Amino acid sequence: MSELDPRDRRAVALQLSREPRAIRAVAHRCGCGLPDVVETSPRLADGTPFPTLYYLTCPRAASLIGTLESSGLMKLMTDRLTEDPDLQEKYDEAARDYISRRDAQGVLVDVPAQGGMPTRVKCLHVLVGHSLAVGEGVNPFGDEALAMLEDWSRKGPCVDPDDPQATPHKKTRS
To answer: How far apart are CA 117 and CA 64, in angstroms?
Structure first.
């Protein structure tokens, strides 16, 4: 975890094409040095629950993960949970870890871990973000998905936070 400086905040805004909400720190940096995962507060400024603790910000990483999601991988992963009790236990532990880390920032009562944990695989972006932020071994499906991805930093930075002409463009969907 590293402090969020103005350059990081600008990079994240450019990555998301909007101003970031509830970000607290850089949870992981990509090979190019820019944030690719941020840690967020469990509530937005207005008090609305925001349960995604580790938010994947890099558009290249998000696109690669989206390709995995569209391949049907999440259903295959979910099916494995019923067949492999050891895998289910590791996924249960990942969910407990996620909630524990989120609760350390602020408790969200009756809000489960994200990404489908611990009963299914719903969002690989969350699971990969968890693995990147905490490290290999924390989330079995985050680790598996990461192993399937090419290095998204190989083409260099996805945005240039030092370019005074670059501006976050509002997305039509979030």
So the answer is: 21
**How many residues does this entry show for the chain?**
174
For the stretch 2-30, pLDDT in tens is 788 999 999 999 999 999 999 999 999 99
Please give the backbone phi and psi of residue 58, each rounded to the nearest 5 degrees, phi first: -70, 120
- Cα torsion 129, 29, 15, 103: sign: positive
> What is the C-alpha to C-alpha distance for residues 95 and 52, in angstroms, rounded to an integer?
12
Question: Is the full-model pTM beyond 0.85?
Answer: yes
* Residue 45 near residue 22 (C-beta atoms within 8 A): yes
- Collapsing DSSP states into helix, strand and coil, what is residue 119? coil
Long-range contacts of 61-65 (CB under 8 A, 24+ apart): 61/30, 61/36, 61/128, 61/149, 61/152, 62/125, 64/149, 64/150, 64/152, 65/124, 65/125, 65/128, 65/145, 65/149
- Please give the helix or strand (H or E) that residue 55 lies within, else none: strand 54-56
Task: Give 68-102 pLDDT, tens digit per residue.
Answer: 999 999 999 999 999 999 999 999 999 999 999 99
